[in-house]
Amino acid sequence: MPTKKKASLTQLGKQMSRPDSPDKAAIESVRNPHKGVAYCVRFTCPEFTSLCPITGQPDFAHLVIDYMPKDRLVESKSLKLFLGSFRDVGAFHEDCTVAIALRLVQALKPTWLRIGGYWYPRGGIPIDIFYQTGLPPKDVWIPAQEVSSYRGRG
Q1: Which candidate in 45, 59, 66, 96 is catalytic?
Q2: For the residues 22-40, what does the mean pLDDT come to?
Q3: Which residues lie below 8 Å from residue 29, measured CB to CB, with a gap of 6+?
Q4: Is 96 known to be catalytic?
Q5: SS3 string of 107-122?
Q6: Of 124, 122, 74, whose CA–CA distance to 94 is shortest?
Q7: Contact at 8 Å (CB) between 70 and 109?
Q8: What is the pTM of this model?
Q9: In this structure, are residues 76 and 139 in contact, taking their beta carbons and an 8 Å threshold?
Q10: Which residue among 23, 40, 52, 96 is the active-site one?
């Protein structure tokens, strides 16, 4: 059943510029219409970008975010703007990946959340970062992320 109330959302349906930094980005949420039902939500961002904090060169990652909602669902446009706000930010892979997870946990207070940050090589070494809030719930289907580690031309 679609939710009718949009009054609390400030970004959905409006022309919005990408925030200058993650600190300025608002993660908005909506009421979970299926509170009490165990299910998994997945967001995939195959073109995430940030900057190397030392060289200023761009870094690229494929992010997969899975969460089991409790009371709130993340509003996808605000998530897109939040992820895009890292584009001009200098931060190490670990910082970006974990900071995204912690902000989502803070905003949504989900039953469970995990993120896989599959980063493309920097200096010839791919770096994959994984975070989750605890053991995966047993009463919900959570598909494998199935993102292969970077293999180059091999």
Answers
A1: 59
A2: 93
A3: 72, 73, 74, 75, 78, 107, 108
A4: no
A5: HHCCCEEEEEEEECCE
A6: 122
A7: yes
A8: 0.88
A9: no
A10: 52
Mind listing the pLDDT tens digit for each residue in 32-75? 999 999 999 999 999 999 999 999 999 999 999 999 999 999 99
Give 118's Cβ-side CA count (13 Å radius). Answer: 15
Dist CA 59 CA 48 (whole Å)? 8
* Secondary structure of residue 99 in the 3-state scheme: helix
78-134: pLDDT as tens digits: 999 999 999 999 999 999 999 999 999 999 999 999 999 999 988 888 899 999 999
Contact of 137 with 38, CB cutoff 8 Å: yes
**Cβ proximity of 68 and 111 under 8 Å:** yes
Query: What single-letter amino acid sits at 59?
Result: D
Q: Is 40 a catalytic residue?
A: no
Between β-strands 29-31 and 72-74, what pairing exists: parallel, antiparallel or unpaired? antiparallel
**Residue whose entry in the numeric block shows the structure tokens 């949504």:** 108
Which DSSP symbol is given to 21?
S
Amino acid letter for position 49: T
Contacts of 3 (CB under 8 A, 6+ apart): 30, 31, 33
Smallest Cα–Cα separation from 97: which of 85, 115, 123, 82?
A: 115
Whole-angstrom distance, CA of residue 37 vs CA of residue 130: 26
